[in-house]
Design a protein that fits this description.
single chain, alpha/beta, eight-stranded parallel beta barrel, globular, binds ligand 3DU
């Protein structure tokens, strides 16, 4: 399980990870946390001994995208998430300075407007340059299809609980990790919520 730590401020972030770190395999940080706590929060979170994924969904021209990835990695991020729909030059440039997850498709309804129609091509691109892909838990069939393309790359899947996918549905479809945010950090008891989800996921392994 990967914790999507979309909380505001360092204090709350450290609190939530302190309560849940035993149950999680990695921490995903994104704009809400970085914009409120600063990039230095990555170094603070690394003290928990878990891999850090910088979810910046990088989507700029190659030299700027690569610079974002370089800075995130320099700050301590073990992985950076890049938008595959930007094309091969962007993903290749980023791959030279960071270990990547490539967004191949997304979990929200609007994904069907554009990105979903290209998800197989993007997964093929990821296979050349990335450690893994991001694929939607809300569409298990997409995970199955993309698994056939990416082979043994790591598939991480958001969209669980708060966005509607059932706990375990992405893993059952072939994902390696489920990404879970609000169902943990917005729960009155994040430690208990994380533990209950972990028990369900363990039952599938
Ligand atoms: O819905 P949740 O609160 O469990 O958070 C999901 C996280 O996954 C959140 O950080 C969001 O930025 C990320 N994500 C998606 O929700 C959907 C995607 O397709 C890709 C990433």
């Amino acid at each position: 399980m990967i914790l999507a730590l979309d909380v505001n401020g360092a204090k709350r972030a450290v609190e939530v990870v302190g309560e849940t770190s035993k149950c999680i395999d990695a921490i995903k940080v994104g704009y809400p946390l970085i914009l409120t706590a600063g990039l230095g929060i990555i170094a603070d979170l690394k003290k928990f001994g878990l891999p850090i994924i910088a979810d910046f969904k990088v989507a700029d021209v190659p030299h700027v995208s690569a610079e974002i990835c370089r800075l995130a990695t320099k700050a301590g991020a073990d992985f950076v998430i890049v938008q595959g729909i930007m094309g091969s030059d962007v993903v290749e440039a980023c791959s030279k300075v960071a270990t990547l997850f490539v967004v191949s498709d997304m979990s929200h309804p609007g994904a069907l407007d554009y990105i979903s129609g290209h998800n197989q091509e993007i997964a093929g691109l990821a296979k050349r340059f990335a450690e893994g892909i991001v694929a939607p838990a809300t569409r298990p069939q997409t995970i199955k299809t993309l698994r056939n393309i990416v082979g043994d790359l790591i598939i991480i899947s958001p969209g669980v609980k708060a966005q509607g996918a059932k706990v375990g549905s992405a893993i059952s479809a072939g994902a390696d990790f489920e990404i879970i945010g609000r169902a943990i950090y917005s729960s009155p008891d994040p430690a208990l919520a994380a533990e209950q989800i972990k028990i369900k996921l363990k039952g599938l392994i």
